[in-house]
């Protein structure tokens, strides 16, 4: 009887199907995913190393970038290894606890990334609109407070989701047609009302939309200040400092926006399209962000090149020493 109740309320495991309808190309889909994961790991770790070791980069803008890189490492690690296990090795089973843990970290890192992008927009606003007060406003203490707020707000958005799922009975339903565990994907398996889950999820979406609104307001103020500058050279120079941040914002919010639109309104769109778009916004930004900042930020680009050149010289000298001996 107790085993029956346990099965009803908490299945021992869930079955992740990957991308239904594209089972024949699962192995092929895994190849670009693997390379995206490598780029995300190497790119974000490299940028974080450069920021830590280069004293000229110990500025608010780069502290926020280091936060973004650590979040991207967490987000990609929470999703891609499990996807590769499904696509390459058919490891579809995941325990109830592991599924909830993955859901927690995916939503936590997504919420964190959103608020860090708001902080980076605020950083650019202060740098362009109040340059003389930049170091007075964005002190180390303020940056720590912003990081604390980001963590606390993300926990507020995600921790209740875990308890909202734990209260639901599942009546033996355990098949999730997706590549990873996410809140509504799990909640829809329940054999009870999920109205509270839906309402809380909509509340979280409204907070993310508030982040988008704050970013838009920041850039309206930035554009207003830029076009008051006397020369086009000064305007282009000011806008150029925002280019990397704008690229990162677009890489994060555009896939999420299209995923949300197809999920809510694209009822005639095949299921594999929904899942493919949902994968994009957790897979692509972690790989793109370090590339965008690495290519567009001169200090990071030069430091990375210096590190690689020094490493290649050391390897060359070691080879020549071995040959001589």
Structure in words:
With 325 residues, the chain is an all-alpha fold. The chain contains twelve helices and three strands. It has helices at residues 2-9, 26-53, 60-89, 96-129, 134-137, 140-166, 183-187, 195-226, 232-240, 243-265, 271-296, 298-324, and strands spanning 13-16, 93-95, 175-176. A three-stranded mixed beta sheet has the order 2-1-3. α3 packs antiparallel against α4 (96-129). The longest helix has 34 residues, at 96-129. The N and C termini lie far apart (75 Å).
Keywords:
325 residues; 12 helices; 3 strands; 3% strand; globular
Question: What Rg is obtained from the alpha carbons, in whole angstroms?
Answer: 23 Å
Quote the distance from N terminus to C terminus.
75 Å
| Average pLDDT taken over every residue | 89
Low-confidence stretches: none
What's the quaternary structure here?
single chain
Structural class: mainly alpha
How many H/I helices? Answer: 12
Largest sheet: 3 strands, mixed
Molecular shape = globular
């Amino acid at each position: 009887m107790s085993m029956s109740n346990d099965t009803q309320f908490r299945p021992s495991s869930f079955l992740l199907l990957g991308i239904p309808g594209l089972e024949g190309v699962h192995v092929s889909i895994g190849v670009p995913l693997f390379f995206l994961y490598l780029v995300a790991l190497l790119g974000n770790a490299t940028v974080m190393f450069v920021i830590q070791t280069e004293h000229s980069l110990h500025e608010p803008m780069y502290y926020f970038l280091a936060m973004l890189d650590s979040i991207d490492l967490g987000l990609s690690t929470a999703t891609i290894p499990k996807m590769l296990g499904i696509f390459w090795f058919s490891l579809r089973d995941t325990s109830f606890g592991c599924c909830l843990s993955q859901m927690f970290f995916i939503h936590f890192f997504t919420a964190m990334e959103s608020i860090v992008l708001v902080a980076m927009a605020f950083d650019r606003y202060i740098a362009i609109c109040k340059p003389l007060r930049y170091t007075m406003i964005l002190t180390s203490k303020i940056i720590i407070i912003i990081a604390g707020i980001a963590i606390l707000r993300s926990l507020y958005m995600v921790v209740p989701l875990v308890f909202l799922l734990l209260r639901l009975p599942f009546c033996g339903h355990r098949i999730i047609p997706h590549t990873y565990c996410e809140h509504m994907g799990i909640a829809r398996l329940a054999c009870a009302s999920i109205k509270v889950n839906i309402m809380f999820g909509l509340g979280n979406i409204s907070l993310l939309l508030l982040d988008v609104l704050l970013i838009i307001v920041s850039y309206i103020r930035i554009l207003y200040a830029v076009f008051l500058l006397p020369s086009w050279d000064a305007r282009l120079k000011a806008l150029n400092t925002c280019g990397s941040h704008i690229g990162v914002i677009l890489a994060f919010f555009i896939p999420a926006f299209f995923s949300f639109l197809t999920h809510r309104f694209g009822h005639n769109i095949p299921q594999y399209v929904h899942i493919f778009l949902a994968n994009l916004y957790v897979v692509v930004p972690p790989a793109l962000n370090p590339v965008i900042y690495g290519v567009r930020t001169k200090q990071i680009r030069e430091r990375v090149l210096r590190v690689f050149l020094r490493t290649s010289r050391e390897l060359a000298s070691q080879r020549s020493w071995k040959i001589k001996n």
